[in-house]
Structures are given as C-alpha cells and as structure tokens.
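Handout, page 2. Input:
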Amino acid sequence: MSYKTLDDLDDGQRVLLRADLNSPVEEGRVQDNRRFARHARTVRELVEKGHRVAVLAHQGRPGRDSFVPLEQHADILAEHVDQPVKYVADTYGPSAIEAINDLAPGDVLLLENVRMTDDELPEKEPEEHAKSGLVKRLSREFDAYIGDGYSVAHRKHASIVGFPLVMDAYAGRVMVAEYEANSSIASKEFDGEVTMVAGGKKATDVIEVMTALEDKVDNFLLGGIAGELFLRAVGYDVGRDIGDMDLYDEQYHRNREKIQHMIEAHPSELVYPTDLAYEDENGERAEVTVSDVKNKDHDYLDVGADTTSRYADIAAHSGAVFVKGALGVFEDERFAYGTTNILEAIAACDGFSVVGGGDTSRAINMYGLREEDFSHVSIAGGAYIRALTGKPLPGVEVLKRANEAEAEVAE
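Output:
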C-alpha cells in the first residue's frame, strides 16, 4: 500500500501543507534557492483547485544564526507562486488561527517557523507527536494535511509525523517526485550499467551508501575525500591529513573495515582516480599522477584530466547514474573541472540520472547546466542518503500508514 497524492484530493479544501523552505541566511537575508521553486509548483496547483492553503515550514535551529522568522520566506515564495503569500508571526496561537480562518479559496498563508514551538523538534514516535498541542490545535482547522517536505522526511518531528495520524493525509508533488527518483536505485531495473559518482567531503556518508548499494551498482566513480581514502587503503600516499587539516584520518579509521570490505568484495566495481589536482606555488591548478605522489604535501582539490575523461566516458554509457558528492571543490573555478565535466556527460547521456541534493546540485546552476537535462535533481540531503541506503523515511512511512488505516476502515 502506498500513500495518497494530490490526485486523490477533492477540490476546495482547507489544507495544511508541510514544505521545506529552509535556506541559507547571509547577513540576515534569506537566500532564494530551488526549494522555493519546487514547493511553489505544489502551492500553485492547490491554488488553482480552489484550496485554502496554510504552509508550515522551518528555518534553521535554535541557537544558530540561521534561526530566523519566516517573513522573508513569504516574500520569496510569493515571487515563485506569482501571487501574494500572507504571513503571520504565529504558528498555532490565536493570531495564527484567526489568519487561517480568514483564508478565502485560493489564498496562501505562511505560518511562523514551526521550530519556534516547543512541540516540533523532539524526536518522538508519531503517536506521541499526534497528542502534541501543535498537532491537536492545527488539525482542527483543516480538512487535509499534505506532506511535501521530503528533505525533512528523515526526521521524526511533530509537523512531519504527527498530523497524518489524526487527519486525512496526502503526499505532495515534491514528496512524490523525490521519493520515487531517490529510491529508484533500489527498486528499478535499468537498461544498462548503474554508475554512482561517490565524492564530496562527507566520506562517511558516501561509504555508507556504497556498502548499502554494493550489489546494485556496477561502477563507483571515486572522488573527493572518499576517493583519497580508498587510494590510501590500496597503498597510495594520499588520503592523509596535512598541517591542521582534519578531513581524512578520522574518517579513514572510522570506515576502514567498510573500505577494506568494498576493496575485497567488489574490486572491479571500484574506479579509482589516476591523477589529482592541487594549487601550486603560483596559485595555479596543477596535476599529479597518483602513483607519483610521495609524502603527501598538497591538499588535493579535484580529480585530474585523465580521471575526468575516464569517468565521463563511463557515465555517458551507463543506463543510470546517481551522483552523491562532487569530485572536487567546484566552488573554485580552478577545481571545478572534474565535477562540471562529469555533470555535462551525465546531462548528455540517454540514461536515467539523479543528482543528489546539497552542494553538488548547486554546481548545475553555477556552471550554466540545465536542470531539465537530468532525470531528477534532488533538494534533499539526509533524506537522499537514507533513500539510497534503503532506510525508511518516517515522513513517508506515516503517509503510507495513514492510507492503510483509511483502507482498513473502508473495508
């Protein structure tokens, strides 16, 4: 049994939409990002069908500079929806309830940062959250709950798992698109080899994904921190901290057994970098063959040209490609070569392609690539990893439970 979607929702309802509008905040200004554009599609559809829409979202965490109210978010969302979005500096108190009751068909209201309530952040089971003041009070004001915040679906927070137990619940368009694309590596058969780009700084996450998918992936294109750690494990003098660096040694020792398992169990599936790029004494990009590295004395910031060419060829001829992490520090144009070229090869291939959320997906916009040339560009980070590793997402599972419970009642 799966979840219900917006296709199952009658028109003209009072709906509570849980979105994820969490964004970078720079000098007090909330930055626009693709999350607004994605959720705006769901909002526009609801508006067109005459729903009264209240949006529940979060920003940052208590104690961080990014923990700010959602007033700016309302203005950014309004630009994407192409109509006014009202804002109320309250989540479920009297001001919020009044603003909700004042909604007319087609109106959109953004409630205050849900993480500013005491009920939201504690990790609890859905049954406990369903009894919270937040869920009990807001659920009385709506006909339906729409879970659209896929990128927070790995959290057991009140606004994510509590409402579906006490309300008619549906998966929004973002939730459906993300879940189906990100879980496809474990659930679909592809016409050709399955390739994963395994890079980025968070090697522990990448290695967890690799071990979970060891029997699903034909080619792991290694780069970033993970690439150096695997090279270190097979005897090359890289993958070590130098100076005050703290990226390699701790992650290597933490994941050593998993790395060794992959090397022994899947030697033909691991594709290693043969050259790496670094900044020379003149501030220019320079490259070195991995076998020539003796006593690592550079921070390697990208894969080299030979590695990039090999990787691009493998990706271009794959039936499916999943990207988990960049191949280099693409924010610096000197070291964007590996990441941008592999993305261009993936964009040009005929296979199914998913680019993971977070930093890697930013390279698409930074270097003029088109999002529509990929099958899916995820806006999720932690939820993307959980989907790839086959772990259940509480925010998805509770929508399925709600549908199952309704089906049992109907019988």
